[in-house]
Amino acid sequence: MIEAFIPLLQLSDSPRIVNVSASIGKLKNIPSEWVRGVLSDEENLTEEKVDGILNEFLKDFKDGSLESKGWPAFLSAYTLSKAALNAYTRIVAKKQPSMYINCVCPGFVKTEMNLNSGILPVEEGAASPVRLALLPNGGPSGLFFVREEVSSFE
Question: Is this structure's pTM higher than 0.90?
Answer without folding.
Answer: yes
